[in-house]
Structure formats: C-alpha cells, structure tokens
Write a structure and sequence with these properties.
Layout (H helix, E strand, L loop, with lengths): L1 H16 L15 E8 L5 E7 L4 E10 L2 E11 L5 E9 L2 E5 L11 H12 L14
Antiparallel strand pairs: 1-2, 2-3, 3-4, 4-5, 5-6
Length: 137
Amino acid sequence: MYKVFLLLLAVFSISVYGQRRPPSIQPGQIIKIIKQESDLSPDGSYHWSYETENGIAAQEQGQLKNPEAMEAQGSFQYTADDGTPIQVQYVANELGFQPQGAHFPTPPPIPPAILRALEYNAAHPEQDDSDKPQRLG
C-alpha cells in the first residue's frame, strides 16, 4: 500500500526537484507552502495536496482496490526552466505508473501502408486451423 505512495513520491521528487532551479530561485531561498492538506482514512484511502508560493502544486488520492492492490490518481504542476508550464496527471495501479502530459513526446503517426495492413488484418482474422491435421513433407 505504501510502496505505491513512496514510488509516486520518488517519481514526483525526481520530476520536480531533479530539474535545474529556475533562474528566479536563489540557493538557500525559502519557498513557502501556502496550502497543504492530508487525510488518511481507516479503510486505507487517502488524499493529500499542497501548493507553494512559486507555483508548484500537487495532489493525490488513493484507495485499496483489494487487499493486495492500491490505486492512486493525482497530478502535479510546476514551471520549467524555460518558462513552460508543466502539468502531469497520472494513475498508478497494478499496471504501473501511467503519466499523461502535453509536454511528453508522442510517437510519429503510423505510415498509411502499415495502417491499411492493420485494418485489413482486423477485418479478415485468420481462421483457426488447429483442429485440422497438418501435412508433413
């Protein structure tokens, strides 16, 4: 249960604090937390959020899906060194950490010939011949 939380906290820390310091923040400068909330319920569900005076904000809520699986949803935002606003939404569950954000690279489009072949294959599934005897030789 707490492994997912610790993993998300580590990913968030790397994402936010692994970045170079924006030019407006000086070493040793104190950035105030202007809003912070946290709640842990007896059933294992939780939520937390915070916001700092320099525009960093994060929030997450999570709950047990079953005795062995936790699911969390959340988001965080900050401003990159070049002034670009970064916003990430994520889900973390048995399928892993699944972030989404406009700044993430996207794959190139599928070439038209490959797309046509995929569409043809989907429209004409191969018949299952496993029950027929195979010829040898």
